[in-house]
Please model this.
Amino acid sequence: MLPPDPSPASSTVGFVTLGCPKATTDSERILTRLRAEGYLISDSHEDADLVVVNTCGFIEAAVEESLAAIGEALAENGKVIVTGCLGAKSDAILAAHPAVLAVTGPHADEEVMRHIHAHLPPPHDPFSSLVPPQGVRLTPPHYAYLKISEGCNHQCSFCVIPSLRGPLASRPVASILEEAQHLVAAGVRELLIVSQDTGAYGLDLKYRTAFFGGRPIRTRLAELCQALGELGVWVRLHYLYPYPALDDLIPLMAEGKILPYLDIPFQHANPRVLKAMRRPGNIENTLERIHAWRERCPGLTIRSTFITGFPGETDAEFEELLSFLEAAQLDRVGCFPYSPVEGAAANELPGALPRAVREERRRQLMEVQEEISAKRLEEKIGQEITVLVDEIGDEGIIARSMADAPEIDGLVYLDPEFPASPGDFLRVLVTDSDTHDLHAEIIGFGQE
Ligand code: SF4
Model:
């Protein structure tokens, strides 16, 4: 659902505030924001375009008073957003008043403002209205990165990101979905979901239930993907830590809700090295899971990254990594020679390897993988696939398949004699392949 047109004839918000002084300060912050954005405030439900009820849930009597205030606002106005302490028990509110537009917990001014914007856009502002709703983007118009969280709760010994960016901080699910809708409305055909740790999304918010378009939605990756999958564009997930909950995403991929593309940095395959990296070490289990994922979703593309020459990595441990690659038959692999980062715990580990060894192991790993990648691409010859056009060059049309993320994966080269434009979906027949890319003939416009 798209937000209503901007600049409605009036933008008046009715406001009811119940409870203690902390609730009052929450109300004051929201009212200050509303006035700063040009909304009018009314103490009459009938004169308002929408009513916000800031509730109290301290004792039974306060709960009853809050539910009654919501009921009154619904009866007299019809458009009601609920916030405050009782909002933390959204199920109780929805059971009593299923017609409310949205419910948030206390101290949630950002979320409340977002719901107000969605149901009652702010009056026209000659300065901010010059910025398009999807914001200013650095990517081509047909794809966009969508960040869903910041920071990371892990402590991988080679990484300093948690100390730079802090612990996991997930964005509210409604804010992400709203941004996604604006992007799609502006012509984006592929959403690239990014964060430091995409699979952890919502953990810090205790997977709370939020609201979007009047519908309850959990702050959790599978539910977010389900909702993004309804937008009718490609949704590609990046940076998935190998959590067990990842398995919940595979059915969504098999059903075509999101792209069948898993970007999981495994980093290594030897349990001792993984332990020293402070990463999950059960590699037997990883191979079994890869097998199960491919059984459930045969078109799945798996991309991963690895580190060679980690401190203390022996020849045998490196060989084990190469054997893992042979067994896993991953589609796309990136590899970095270990490089000490100032402040990383791994710098203190014994057994630092010379740069030449770290580099040589990277070269060997990529040699093994290139053969695997080339073989997996060759298996696509003769298949009909969907591609998204990236650019029209002198030598032809350059596109990407579902298996190719922009900038990091391969390309699909097509015949120049076709009236396609960047952002078009095409059906193509794969005719040739090399180590990274495909060549194909165009069948026509459209998706599968
Ligand atoms: S490597 Fe990734 S998962 Fe590990 S600490 Fe760094 S950001 Fe977090």
Remarks:
- The pocket of iron/sulfur cluster is lined by residues 152, 154, 156, 159, 161-162, 196-197, 241 (CB under 6 Å).
- The chain has twelve helices and 20 strands.
- Confidence is low (pLDDT under 50) at residues 1-8.
- The radius of gyration is 26 Å.
